[in-house]
DNA sequence: CTGTATCCTAGTAGATACTG
DNA sequence: CAGTATCTACTAGGATACAG
């Protein structure tokens, strides 16, 4: 190690030997998670569908700001990953319903926790940003 | 899944009037969440820093697959948002430590839940993808 | 050791128009 | 109603080289 001449004793550093509840072992898992969670609209759509089957136009209204294109794309992606089921009712006019699968429903609590966290801290995050930007300008 | 979408008139569908535990009220909150959670490396870095202050090179090793550039960029973003603190020790060679803030630590359980979910379902997600792709080809 | 700078690619996303 | 097509723009991300 190269810290012997820095004067910093490093016997107080916590061991990085993965305390079994901190790191998921496989990086693969993380990658899979990100694909569901990252993306601008995934969470919004899943949250909107939590209450039960929902139609295309309802989603378009509920997930405000989403474009028709992105709604379609995200829906297809979610369907492909088995997070929701697309049901076409052969009526006229056509009616399509999107229903979350069981595994998607399991994300409910996590997403609630996530949004709660954001709600608790959005003010301080905004403040931190302003502080950082102000300081960056000065520097 | 628990309820069918097979044409049974569903009088049990809950109203879409935001049951106060399902939708975060403001789309803004969601947007803020996504900025912390989306992005390929945010979760990995935060998880790696959960155990205590961690150095640049340690992160580079622990968050496997990340490039130096993305590590720097993500670190800066996280710092700007007040999720971690960057401490420079004016030694030679330089030593920089990244320490999570309290609000970042609060994400621990949520992220654990997320990775656990991914771990539980990654097999069925992969299967769903194969099925979807196979069917798309046929169609 | 801890970054920055540059170049380049692919994916994400918006706008708009068109269709079964 | 529920999409698709096309065109464009921005950003995320990787590779590589250089620097304090």
TrEMBL record, chains A, B:
Record-linked Pfam families: HxlR (PF01638)
Gene3D superfamilies reported in the protein's UniProt record = Winged helix-like DNA-binding domain superfamily/Winged helix DNA-binding domain
| Stored InterPro entries | HTH_HxlR (IPR002577), WH-like_DNA-bd_sf (IPR036388), WH_DNA-bd_sf (IPR036390)
> What is a GO molecular function of this protein?
DNA binding
Query: Which residue intervals make up region (Disordered)?
Result: 1-26
Supply the alphabetized keyword list: DNA-binding, Transcription, Transcription regulation
HTH hxlR-type domain: from which residue to which, for each copy? Answer: 28-126
Q: What is this protein called?
A: HxlR family transcriptional regulator
Q: Which organism is it from?
A: Actinocrispum wychmicini
């Amino acid at each position: 190690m190269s810290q012997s001449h820095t004067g910093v004793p490093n016997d107080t550093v916590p061991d990085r030997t993965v305390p079994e509840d901190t790191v998921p072992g496989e990086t693969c898992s993380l990658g899979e998670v990100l694909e569901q969670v990252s993306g601008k609209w995934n969470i919004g759509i899943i949250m909107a569908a939590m209450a039960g089957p929902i139609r295309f136009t309802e989603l378009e209204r509920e997930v405000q700001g989403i474009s028709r294109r992105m709604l379609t794309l995200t829906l297809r992606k979610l369907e492909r990953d088995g997070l929701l089921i697309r049901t076409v009712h052969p009526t006229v006019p056509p009616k399509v319903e999107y229903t979350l699968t069981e595994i998607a429903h399991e994300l409910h609590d996590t997403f609630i926790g996530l949004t709660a966290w954001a709600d608790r801290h959005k003010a301080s995050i905004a403040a931190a940003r302003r502080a950082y930007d102000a300081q960056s300008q000065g520097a």
